[in-house]
Specification:
It contains 15 helices and 14 strands. The strands form two sheets. It has a seven-stranded mixed beta sheet. Strands 9-8-14-13-12-11-10 form a seven-stranded mixed beta sheet. α9 packs across α15. The chain is of the alpha+beta class. The longest helix has 13 residues. 30% of the residues lie in helices and 21% in strands. The relative contact order is 0.14.
Length: 382
């Protein structure tokens, strides 16, 4: 289980700084008091389910402990698929221990944060146990104990296992997006970034793979990308690959969700090492900025925001420190006089240039980029 402990470490995030006069629905703060739920808590944050919980008036969180999370993560799922499963653990109704044991007719059905028609069936079993299962599936978990409750708004309970339908089909997922991400970007002011993505088969494959289970893209507008081309062209192939994947997250995040978020998130370029290729999402009212140690970019427009795909325009190119401080990835001396911004934070350990692996597991993505000539970019642009 060392891989998944590393993944859990990778996405250990700072607490959301959510303005409120109460912490009743701040699930991150509540679960932080219980180390046995640390992995579950980390993934609620990494998949942006925490702010969704915060916004609800009545909700039940079915938490699973670290051992159960390890078993669940052994399915080697993408972060988007993990979000789909954990969404089933968020019931849009209030169930504490007393209510669970006194269900009318011994059964109840609750809607969840998972896309409709996904719901969870709750059933009183023999021997006083209470079973939980995705709709029309066998019992997948049983009630263990009540963790905390705020009658009748928030209940946090422990269940014995993840709500999997099967190892092959872990949970109902959003329907694959009918939109082509590169086509949508090309048609809405991000054609240069889209052209670079199309030129890189491995990067495009990483974006397309996550478009099935959930994908968020931060695409720099054409003016920003054109001015960055001389630097991009002088990156190594691995550096180009990492920079492109740095502009995507392997799960769907709505604009309203980003406006409720403050914290670090992993990207398609993130591997299993702590704090590599991460972004900081910061909100200020309706404004959302995406920060890296080298640049702060602002969301200036929405191309598409419909589960499972979100595409947002940025006014700047996101520059990962790991690329520009790594001899294996950084621009060659031929980059000329184009100066890079000074980092906002001390340099992290450089990446080794071979960190990404060819599979779809959460926070582990493929590498090897290909170059696109400046001329082709301008042909596609004009």
């Amino acid at each position: 289980m060392e891989l998944h402990h590393a993944a859990a470490t990778l996405i250990t995030l700072s607490l959301f700084l959510l303005p409120s006069t109460t912490t009743a629905h701040n699930i991150t703060a509540i679960l932080a008091k219980y180390p046995d739920f640390s992995t579950f808590n980390n993934y609620l944050t990494a998949t942006l389910l925490s702010p969704e919980i915060y916004r609800r008036d009545t909700i039940t969180v079915c938490a699973i402990d670290n051992a159960a999370m390890d078993r669940f993560l052994s399915n080697d799922l993408t972060l988007g698929a993990i979000k789909n499963v954990l969404s089933l653990h968020i019931l849009l109704d209030y169930f504490d221990a007393e209510k669970l044991l006194l269900l009318p007719n011994g059964t109840a059905q609750s809607p969840t944060l998972s896309p409709p028609p996904a719901s969870v069936q709750i059933t009183n079993l023999n021997g006083g146990n209470v079973g939980f299962s995705p709709k029309a599936a066998p019992v997948a978990a049983t009630f263990v104990k009540s963790v905390e409750s705020v009658p009748y708004n928030l209940s946090v309970i422990q269940i014995s296992a993840a709500l999997l339908i099967s190892a092959a089909a872990p949970a109902p997922a959003p329907a694959p997006s009918e939109a082509n991400p590169t086509a949508a970007m090309s048609a809405h002011g991000c054609s240069v970034f889209a052209a670079l993505l199309v030129s890189s088969a491995e990067a495009e494959r990483a974006f397309e793979a996550n478009n099935v289970t959930g994908l968020t893209v931060f695409c720099p507008v054409d003016d920003a990308m054109i001015s960055f081309i001389p630097i991009f062209e002088n990156l190594t192939d691995d550096g180009k690959q990492a920079l492109l994947e740095y502009h995507g997250m392997g799960f769907y995040a709505s604009l309203s969700g980003l406006r409720s978020t403050n914290g670090e998130v992993s990207t398609l370029a993130t591997d299993g090492a702590a704090k590599q290729f991460r972004l900081n999402v910061v909100n200020d009212g309706d404004d959302v900025t995406i920060k890296t140690p080298m640049v702060t970019a602002k969301i200036v427009g929405t191309v598409l925001d419909k589960d499972p795909l979100a595409i947002f325009q940025l006014d700047k190119v996101l520059m990962p420190l790991e690329v520009f401080r790594s001899p294996a990835l950084a621009p060659s001396p031929a980059a000329g006089d184009y100066s890079l911004p000074a980092p906002d934070a001390p340099a992290e350990s450089p990446a080794d240039g071979s960190h990404r692996k060819p599979n779809g597991a959460a926070a582990r993505f493929i590498s090897n980029g290909v170059s696109l000539s400046l001329g082709l970019v301008f042909i596609l642009q004009f």
